[in-house]
Amino acid sequence: MKSLILASVFTLSLAQAFAQDYPTLTSNARAAIAKNDYSTAVQQFELAFKLKSTNYGDLYDAACVAALAGNKDRAFQWLEESIAQGWTNFDHLSTDTDLVSLHNEARWGQLTGKLKLKLAELEKNYDQKLKAQLERIFIDDQSLRQQLDPTQKKYGFNSPEMNKLWDEIHTKDEANLREVEQILKEHGWLGSKEVGPRASQTIFLVIQHASAETRLKYIPMMRQAVKDKKANSANLALMLDRINTESGVKQIYGSQLRGKVEGGYELYEIEDPEHLDQRRAEMGLDPIASYIKRWDLTWDLTKYKEEMAAYDRAQVFQVADLEALSKRLWRGELKYLDYSKNVWTSIPSNLRISRSEHDPQTWLWSYGYDDEPHANAKDGLRLSTDGKTLGEEKVLSRTFIQKGAIRIVTTMAGKDDGRDAEFRFTYTIDKDSFERKKEVKLKGADDYFVRHIYSWKG
């Protein structure tokens, strides 16, 4: 059976079940499966499919449960419907131990024969060379990662064995990315109809496992692929959340978790938790309560909203942050996107920050450019008494990252090359280095792009 998302819920009466929505009913079914209560799971799936029966994954899972419950007629019905809705994984179907009770039925041979014919028809249109290449990359991507859990359990999270395995994974990821980027350059995002489901999924996996810059580069292409039904909307949600958490801002779909120092896991901060499940449903994701149950977490919306309110109050730019940057000369470079040539350019840069003698809340930023002194500039940024704004920038987050460095993310509205835009600034402050990155999201656009990055040492 496909991996199931488990949630602990009480079995509801039939009248209550009819009043529930599709995600809740399928979640109830999976909760019953966790208790080996297959008859109740079948009942919940039946109620769910009266509302909607187009999700081939849910139909397949339901067929497995029906087979385990001894309801062969229902099992074959749901398998037929699953295949009709898009299930194409013949290898999984033929080896799934949950379906063994069906193998002696004449209908089994008819069902598998029908799926073989469907696959043969679909594969006529596949690019077999690209399919083989991507499926090889899929194996490369997954084989080493499948060793992570047993290696961690045997040697420990920070063991030399784990570090060596991660080094091997990163090396393989870089090689895989080179191949996938060439495929994207020559063919665009390839969907299931072009190379098959697994090969198409490989493109997402390789980009998801690449650098943050790579994900930002390809997220617009993936958005279009979802619109063209060549990529999965749930995968898009995972990538968008990962981009947000890496950028130091709240996630949208609640897919990303982090380990806690004291053990266990917690969700990264979530934007607008009130409407989280609505957004998740739109992307084909299960309710958040069902999703986080696999990490032994429970969802309490009221409590979470209180936690987010406290989190928001704590996100400030501190005077100490600016004092750490002042009284020294920072030297480095400015890398920026030259719109006229659409190329990245870098020039030497220096920065000195000092506190205004006339207004202790104002900090003076003096930028110098050795090769272009005519571009030297000064800027006065006033820090609000509550630390929530620096100049016109509103503070979104303040986070301690690796080895004691601090990352502060701010946002403001403005114009970029004459166009209305939203700006996002990321300040990364370390003992001997300082970076300020500016990202731009033009009005009407979905995503940010990097406009420039100052990198200094002092």
What does the model show?
This protein is 47% helix and 20% strand. It has 458 residues and is an alpha+beta fold. The strands form two sheets. The chain has a ten-stranded antiparallel sheet with strand order 6-5-4-3-12-11-10-9-8-7, with helices on one face. The protein has a two-stranded antiparallel sheet with strand order 1-2. Helix 9 (148-155) packs antiparallel against helix 10 (160-187). The longest helix is centred in the middle third of the chain and has 28 residues, at 160-187. The relative contact order is 0.06. The model is unreliable at 2-19 (pLDDT under 50). It comes from Undibacterium cyanobacteriorum. Keywords: Signal.
**Binned strand content:** 15-25%
* Mean pLDDT across every amino acid position: 91
Low-pLDDT parts are 2-19
Tally of individual domains: 3
Q: What is the number of helical segments per DSSP (H or I, 4+ residues)?
A: 18
Q: What overall geometry do the principal axes of the alpha carbons give?
A: elongated
Radius of gyration over all CA atoms, rounded: 26 Å
From N to C, what is the helix and strand string? Answer: HHHHHHHHHHHHHHEEHHHHEEEEEEEEEE
What keywords describe this structure?
458 residues, alpha+beta, Serine Threonine Protein Phosphatase 5, Tetratricopeptide repeat, Lipocalin, ten-stranded antiparallel sheet, two-stranded antiparallel ribbon, 12 strands, Tetratricopeptide repeat protein
